[in-house]
Specification:
Structural class: mainly alpha
Largest sheet: none
Radius of gyration: 41 Å
Number of strands: 0
Strand content: under 5%
Number of helices: 7
Shape: elongated
Number of domains: 2
Order of helices and strands: HHHHHHH
């Protein structure tokens, strides 16, 4: 009997505890939900305020960067475009904030980061190019053939002018290699000339009779075949001019495509290029008829001679 009463008592205690849990559980869940909502709202408001302040600061920094690049004489088309878009987005977010709408100032930060990256790339590109110019000036001797190096240097200047700073580093590396190769070749050539000049002079002194006979034979052959040789020279000139004209025509087509289809170049640059290419083609068109006339004269001289 006592055991049965004890079991009933224990059962009532367990049921009471379970009942208390059932009653408290909805209140506990409701409490967690309310706290979560308040936390999200507070975090959202805090983030919005911090982000707006940061966005405003980054816009001011971007304007400072813009002015710095203007002072340094660099083009600012890319930065100005990004800054205008960032400013427009910022103004739109401020309007939404005033109307208590959903805002996202992180969009402005993306443009600010892009502007900072352009500035870093421009500074690095200009500094490295200035060092390259100094290296060029102390390495190059007037007698050296620097045509290849000069092409690369001009390409670097054009990339900086077009604000494609990310393309400058590989070109600078290439220019260094070209300067070193040119200087090495020039030094090796001078050493070769220096070492062989004495031997060459001695060779001429020793074999002057044989050399004189060979020169005489060459002069005679030239006199015999001079018309044919001159025709070959004129024909090669015509072929080179025709090839150059074809190249210029291809450049005109490429320039038109860059302007009308892809928009890679501005109107001013397009007009200058087209005008220059047209002048070069007109000059070629004036030269080719004159050369063909010379070719016809050579043909007549050959016929008369026969």
């Amino acid at each position: 009997m006592k055991k049965q009463n004890k079991k009933e008592k224990d059962a009532r205690i367990i049921l009471k505890k379970r009942g208390n849990r059932v009653i408290l559980k909805p209140f506990f869940i409701l409490f967690l939900f309310v706290m979560a909502v308040l936390s999200v709202s507070f975090a959202s408001a805090l983030t919005s305020n911090v982000t707006q302040s940061t966005a405003s600061l980054c816009l001011n920094e971007s304007r400072i960067i813009l002015q710095q690049m203007i002072d340094e004489g660099l083009n600012i088309l890319r930065i100005n475009d990004s800054l205008n878009q960032a400013t427009s987005l910022y103004d739109a977010q401020v309007v939404l904030l005033e109307k208590k709408g959903k805002t996202d100032f992180s969009l402005i930060m993306t443009y600010c980061d892009e502007i900072k990256k352009i500035r870093e790339d421009s500074t690095s590109a200009v500094d490295e190019f200035n060092v390259l110019v100094q290296f060029y000036n102390i390495s190059i001797i007037p007698a050296m053939d620097t045509s290849t190096i000069d092409l690369t240097m001009n390409e670097i200047r054009q990339e900086i002018k077009n604000e494609r700073y990310e393309n400058v580093k590989p070109l600078i590396d290439r220019a260094y290699n070209e300067i070193i190769d040119t200087k090495s070749s020039y030094t090796a050539l001078n050493l070769f000339i220096s070492s062989t000049s004495r031997g060459f002079v001695n060779f001429i002194i020793k074999h002057w009779k044989t050399i004189l006979i060979l020169v005489f034979i060459l002069i005679v052959l030239f006199l015999i075949y001079r018309i044919k040789i001159m025709k070959m020279i004129v024909t090669r000139q015509i072929e080179r001019l025709a090839l150059r004209k074809k190249t210029l025509q291809d450049l005109i087509m490429k320039t038109q495509k860059d302007y009308f289809e892809t928009g890679k170049i501005p109107e001013s640059e397009y007009n200058i290029k087209i005008k220059k290419f047209a002048e070069l083609i007109r000059d070629i068109d004036r030269q080719i008829p004159l050369l063909r006339e010379d070719l016809m004269k050579l043909e007549k001289r050959k016929i008369k001679k026969v």
